[in-house]
Amino acid sequence: MDETALQRDFDATIDADDRIEPRDWMPDAYRQTLIRQIAQHAHSEIIGMQPEGNWITRAPSLKRKAILMAKVQDEAGHGLYLYSAAETLGVSRDELLDKLHTGRQRYSSIFNYPTITWADMGAIGWLVDGAAIMNQVPLCRCSYGPYARAMIRICKEESFHQRQGFELLLTLSNGTAEQKAMAQDAVNRWWWPSLMMFGPPDSESTHSEQSMRWGIKRFSNDELRQRFVDASVPQAEILGLTLPDPQLRFNSETGHYEYGDIDWSEFKRILAGDGPCNAQRMAHRVKAHTDGAWVREAAAAYADKRAAREEGAA
Ligand SMILES: [Fe+2]
Ligand SMILES: [Fe+2]
User: Fold this and answer.
1) Ligand nearest to the CA of 161
2) Which single residue of 3, 178, 208, 301 has CA 20 to 30 Å from 196?
3) Is 113 in contact with 127 (CB distance < 8 Å)?
């Protein structure tokens, strides 16, 4: 088939809301967009292990430690599903990690903020994983099959992450005055960065329109952000905590909560590398990769040995 016919088949699949699979022809720009998005997503999962991994040894009880360990391990798993999904598009995991380590691909800027107190484990679960779910549930219907299928499992695990964070904050909020203040302080610090996780406003979002047409993106940044605000306000009331936005109010005409201006200069500054933890996160990641080289080499040597043995037997 010539390129026009292939393009026509691709467009028909997208229009019918069917899935594109790795064996199918796809326009190069679609492939490159997916590689960039899935890689950035995978990088965010594994870098996201660091702010919370930091607290595993200091969890206040055996139960909290077990929950936190399970959550951090889940994030490693999410990274693996997503790197595997990216590999179906013709890139290798080595290549993607190299791009991360040399600053040619990004991860979510939220993970460049420090985790200062134990309550941050609650605020991250409730708000950061909560925002991630809002972003990710529509991706379960993404037009690219392997990405959509990875997201179904990831979303189930993210909902556990969100609930454990909410429950942690609820416990602190109903604890001593000091514990409640710690929970409030964590929410104050994580609220605005969580709103930034939905990306720049629609008016400035460069890739959005094409991604919508390709069925990669289903809702705009601002739509998803609004959903998140609408869901979070009543939850904050149950927690007995306030959200740090004096302009937050319910608009009975639109049925939505209005919120104050987001400081996009902070977002851009952190994205450009000048956040409180950018350098620390990257240094830690590169060191973990270097320290793990012998494991990858041993696994590859074992696979070779096995293949040779099987060949001999055949
Ligand atoms: Fe995750
Ligand atoms: Fe998560």
Assistant:
1) 2
2) 178
3) no
Is the confidence at residue 207, as pLDDT, over 80? Answer: no
State the ligand closest to the CA atom of 159.
Answer: 2
CB within 8 A of 154, min separation 6: which ones? Answer: 78, 81, 82, 136
Separation of alpha carbons 242 and 256, rounded Å: 18
- For 88, the enclosing helix (H) or strand (E) is none
- Determine the Cα–Cα distance for residues 26 and 16; give it in Å rounded to an integer: 15
Structure tokens at 42: 């995978």
Q: Identify the CA nearest to 136 among candidates 116, 119, 152.
A: 152
Ligand 2 centre distance from Cα of residue 305 (Å): 37
pLDDT tens, residue by residue, 20-39? 999 999 999 999 999 999 99
129 C-alpha vs ligand 2 centroid, how far in Å?
A: 5
- 247 CB-side CA count, 13 A: 6
* Ligand nearest to the Cα of 42, by number: 1
CA of 102 to the centre of ligand 1 (A): 23
